[in-house]
Design a protein that fits this description.
By secondary structure, the protein is of the alpha+beta class. It has 5 helices and 12 strands. The strands form 2 sheets. Strands 1, 4, 5, 6, 7, 8, 9, 10, 11 and 12 form a 10-stranded antiparallel sheet that branches. Strands 2-3 form a two-stranded antiparallel ribbon. It is rod-shaped, with a radius of gyration of 51 Å. It starts with 22 loop residues before the first helix and ends with a helix.
Length: 424
């Protein structure tokens, strides 16, 4: 037998024992596994972050919509409050005007009574003067009678009788004159007291008129100021606007009745009439302003939920002459004021476009529409449905391009929208 150490080792069968990998191969395998595990962790994190961001965006959108709806409700409540305040101011003005008319009538009546009393006092003074003249004449007659009785040669009894009769007559006349003088003095004192009372009453009426006129002037100023501010914000000259409205609404007529005027004159009444005329002129201006407001495009073109996606001004190096309101395709679009359609069709850049000419030189434009619901020459009123929001023309998404032009010059539509919040 041969030695064991000299024999060759038996051949191993494949698969009998696992083959050992080299150290480099094992390291490469560990690195690959680590990369796969890291990539799995990173991808899971990205997916989790995207999901969280999507949820946050949805919550933010819901919060924005809720805030917008709440703001719309607040604007509606403020509009109702402003309308109630305007109605209350109109009612107060009517009551105050009636009070002014009543007080002026009372003042004129007081003036008539005072003039009558002055005439009565003059007559009483004339009567008193006549009575005093009669008394002086009677005294002179008495002296003459005494002298005549003393110089005559009548018997003593006859002179005594005549003297007694003369004294009786003179005494009666003196008593009558004294009574008339006392009565005249009493009437004069009563007339003076009445005149003083009328003067106090007249001063009270004048003071009350002053207070009422001050309230009326304050009320008119409070009514005119918001309208002045609104037209100044939208870039319209208030004086020219009033002149334009006055030309269109200047019809007058009816029979004219001659007015009565006091021949004596009264500074207080003249001043009150002047102030009343100023108040009436101011109220006429308020009425003309409201006529102009009813003709301006001050309503919202979009009543549904939307998002302001672009403002008026410079954009991408060019002028953006309107504002953009983004929303779903098909969102209803309404006319913002009474007017006449001057264009309804396709125009380069605008896509489907509607132009509406309003009063006082204003024009509105509605671009990128998906549908046009009006024709050229058609008359539309405020809040009339004219089309639907779309994505036509040079547009990156569905929205309304809304423009307002005054005498051909583009102005910021937001000035009209914000100004309307102070009026409606």
């Amino acid at each position: 037998m041969s030695s064991v150490s000299g024999q060759s080792a038996p051949e191993q069968r494949p698969g009998a024992r696992p083959a050992r990998l080299r150290s480099g191969t094992r390291a490469l395998a560990w690195v690959g596994g680590g990369l796969v595990l890291g990539w799995t962790v990173i991808a899971s994190s990205i997916l989790a972050i995207d999901a969280a961001g999507l949820g946050s965006s949805r919550d933010q959108a819901q919060s924005s919509q809720a805030a917008f709806e709440q703001r719309l409700a607040e604007l509606s409540a403020e509009r109702d409050a402003r309308a109630a305040e305007a109605a209350a101011a109109q009612h107060r003005f009517g009551v105050a005007l009636a009070q002014v008319s009543q007080m002026q009538s009372q003042l004129l009546t007081s003036e008539e009574r005072r003039r009558e009393l002055e005439s009565g006092i003059g007559a009483i003074q004339a009567s008193l003067h006549d009575a005093m003249a009669d008394r002086d004449a009677a005294q002179r007659q008495l002296a003459l009678t005494e002298e005549t009785v003393a110089t005559e040669t009548l018997p003593q009894a006859e002179r005594a009788q005549e003297f007694s009769v003369a004294l009786d007559i003179l005494s009666g006349e003196l008593q009558s004159a004294a009574a008339e003088r006392t009565a005249a003095q009493a009437k004069a004192a009563e007339a003076q007291r009445t005149a003083q009372a009328l003067a106090v009453e007249r001063d009270a009426i004048v003071a009350r008129n002053e207070e009422i006129f001050a309230q009326l002037e304050d009320a008119v100023e409070m009514s005119v100021k918001p309208l002045d501010d609104m037209f100044r914000k939208v870039g319209i000259d208030g004086d020219k606007l009033l002149a334009t409205v006055r030309e269109g609404y200047s019809g007058q007529g009816g029979p004219l009745t001659p007015m009565g005027y006091s021949s004596r004159g009264n500074a207080a009444i003249s001043e009150s009439e002047a102030r009343a005329n100023e108040v009436m002129v101011s109220l006429g201006d308020v009425n003309k302003y409201r006529i102009a407001v009813s003709k301006l495009p001050l309503a919202m073109p979009v009543k549904s939920a939307f998002r302001y996606s672009s403002d008026f001004g410079r954009r991408w190096g060019r002028a953006h002459e309107g504002i953009d309101m983004a929303g779903p395709v098909g969102t209803p679009i309404y006319s913002t004021g009474d007017g006449v359609v001057t264009y309804a069709g396709w125009q380069r850049g605008y896509g489907n476009l509607i132009k509406i000419q309003h009063a006082l030189g204003t024009e509105t434009r509605y671009g990128h529409l998906s549908k046009i619901g009006v024709k050229v020459g058609q008359k539309v009123s405020r809040n009339s449905l004219i089309g639907a929001m779309g994505n036509t023309g040079r547009s990156t998404g569905p929205h309304l391009h809304y423009e307002v032009r005054v005498k051909g010059r583009a102005v910021d539509p937001m000035s009209f929208i914000k100004a309307a919040q102070n009026v409606f």
